[in-house]
Specification:
Elements (H helix, E strand, L loop, with lengths): L1 H11 L5 H8 L2 E6 L4 E3 L7 E7 L2 E5 L6 E6 L4 E2 L2 H6 L6 E4 L3 E7 H10 L1 H27 L2 H11 L1 H4 L4 H8 L3 H11 L1
Antiparallel strand pairs: 1-8, 2-7, 3-6, 3-8, 4-5, 4-7
């Protein structure tokens, strides 16, 4: 719990009062999930904004032959089917844990209460949405401007100790290549 407070205080560059923090954490739930647990399925409405304490989570579009992985979330990152969370419309993708994962989660309705009843709530909400937006924007620009090899190198540089725990087929999908092409990239690098 203190990890989340430190994250937010660092991000918003101000101390959160004990009163507001107590109110905020009263709305959070800590949940543990096993490896390969589906957090959100296509067609469901996302009810949570989650903060990853530990673990690896992926978002993907399920396909008959090969799923299309489009993002990963690691320790100290937010994860949500955020478009569904905001619009209250069904998700068009799945969210799944790749490892045993601990999430701190807040329900949509509770977040609305925090927004309306605390000053810090809007700063926290803005920080979460900016974090998710920047991650999405970085991903889009990477797909448009970088080679698959550079996308792989970036992922490896950003999370070297965690990337080794992700199956190669998901990494290949994420960087937009086949597993065979990823194998060739890895041979060139190593």
């Amino acid at each position: 719990m203190e990890q989340i407070r430190q994250y937010f205080e660092h991000a918003i560059q101000q101390r959160i009062s004990d009163k507001e923090w107590t109110f905020f954490v009263s709305k959070l739930s800590r949940q543990e999930f096993p490896k390969k647990h589906i957090l959100l399925k296509t067609g469901q409405i996302e009810n949570y904004l989650s903060f990853v304490e530990t673990g690896i989570v992926r978002c993907y579009i399920p396909k008959l032959e090969n799923d299309l992985t489009f993002t990963f979330a690691f320790d100290n990152n937010f994860i949500s089917g955020y478009d569904s969370f905001l619009t209250r419309k069904p998700s068009t993708y799945h969210i799944e844990t790749l490892t045993k994962t601990i999430l701190w989660r807040i329900k949509y309705t509770d977040l609305q209460v925090i927004y309306s009843e605390t000053e810090i709530g809007n700063l926290i909400g803005r920080q979460a949405s900016e974090d998710l937006f920047l991650k999405k924007s970085k991903r889009e620009l990477s797909l448009l401007n970088e080679s698959a090899e550079q996308r792989y190198r970036n992922l490896f540089t950003e999370q070297p100790h965690l990337i080794q725990r992700i199956p190669l087929k998901y990494i290949a999908s994420y960087i937009g290549v086949t597993p065979q092409a990823l194998s060739r990239i890895r041979k060139r690098i190593y």
